[in-house]
Amino acid sequence: MFQGLVVMRKFLLVVIVFAGLLHFMLHIFIQKRTGSTLPADQLKEYKSCYNEKYRQLLNITDLKPFLCGEDFRNQAVLLGSNKIDLPYGTHRGDRFFDLALKRLPKCYIPDEIRNISCKKCIVVGNGGVLRNSTLGKKIDTYDVIIRMNSGPVLGYEDDVGRKTTFRLCYPESIFSDALHYDPNTTVVLLMFKPHDVKWLSELLMSKRVSTYGFWKKPAMHLIYQPHQLRILNPYVVRRVSQNILNFPTKFPKTEKPKHPTTGIIAITLAFQMCNEVHIAGFKYNLSSLNSSLHYYGNDTMSIMAQNEYHNITVEQMFLSDLIEHKTITNLT
Fold first, then answer.
1. Listed residue (246, 224, 329) closest to 282, CA to CA
2. Quick one: pLDDT at residue 300?
3. How many other C-beta atoms can be found within 10 angstroms of the C-beta atom of residue 20?
4. Neighbours of 95 (CB within 10 A)
5. Where are the domains of the chain?
6. CA nearest 69: which of 208, 226, 221?
7. Higher pLDDT, 302 or 240
8. Which is more confident, 21 or 292?
9. 292: which strand partners?
10. Angle 185-187-191 from CA coordinates, rounded to 5°
11. What is the rounded average pLDDT for all residues in the chain?
């Protein structure tokens, strides 16, 4: 009995030593492979540009930001989006999603953007604080430039720059005047209601577009090519609403539901794609109702103060926290 235990112990010791040696050899092999494919200076750059805070903040690193026709249904089931109505799910819009996605040839981040290492990105808001900012040249130096809705570049280049990598918008806010067309822009569409998805499918199929159900007349034709269009995954907006801004999943009948602004959604998308995120034009001065709401036009802050669909106070607190913890940098 005793001799058997001694033999067993010796056998276990040999196994442990062998396993340790194998682990060491495997570690050396992986290091050599890494060193052969990624030079030391590039490895250093990769480690320095990798920002864990963004992944911890969103916890959606592996999520596809845009819907793809090839696996749209499977992704909807996996994320539970098929059981949730728009805007945070796909329910009640599934058929139109299918029709639209079949006519969009691309659904991923463009290769020329995805292949940039250590992407430095800026999200340009439409706030009046950008007026006379002369930030245009600096904004154009970023790898990725994200803009929102119908915030124009034409005529405001000195303050907001000339380049646009991504533009987030919805049917009522997408450009319809060809003067604003940019062949280098990828347009990310936000679908808030079934009418929005129906609108897109009708345009892509060259059908007559119905304007029923919109708070403002949507674009009646597309100035962009289908390969420039993407549909944002509603799950991204759900994470912003429920996990970042902490909005309830259901609002009382006496209260209008609150939704994230396009700006906050754009910052979230930037977190997912970029290693370093800066912002400009996100300041809302609600204490001065006569101040300019946008860097363009004549709208004043009083319009935003009357808005019942967004909680600007909560969003400004969220941004202040990001800036204070140096998660993002604010140029304005």
1. 329
2. 87
3. 10
4. 12
5. 62-330
6. 226
7. 240
8. 292
9. 300
10. 175
11. 84
Q: Quick check: 160 and 181 in contact, CB under 8 A?
A: no
The DSSP result for 91-138, as a single string, is: BT-HHHHHHHHTT-S--S--HHHHT-SS-EEEEE--BGGGTT---HHH
| 87 DSSP assignment | T
197 sits in which H/E element: helix 194-204
Quickly list DSSP for 294-316.
Answer: BSSSS-BHHHHHT-SS--HHHHH
pLDDT tens-digit map of 6-30? 445 555 454 454 444 444 444 444 3
Instruction: For helices 312-324 and 262-273, give the axis angle rounded to 10 degrees.
Output: 30
Classify residue 253 by burial, with Cβ atoms within 10 Å: 0-12, 13-18, 19+. Answer: exposed
Model pLDDT, residue 45: 39
Q: Evaluate whether 187 touches 224 at the Cβ level (below 8 Å).
A: yes
Spatial separation of the C-alpha atoms in residues 88 and 251, rounded to whole Å: 14
Looking at domain 62-330, its CATH superfamily turns out to be Glycosyl transferase family 29 (3.90.1480.20)
45 bridge partner residues: none
DSSP-derived 3-state class of residue 217: coil
Residue 330 backbone phi and psi in degrees, to 5 = -105, 120
Question: 100-126 burial by CB neighbour count: b if 16+ within 10 A, else e?
Answer: bbeebeebebeeebeeeeebebbbbbb
Q: Which positions ≥6 away from 38 have C-beta within 8 Å?
A: 46
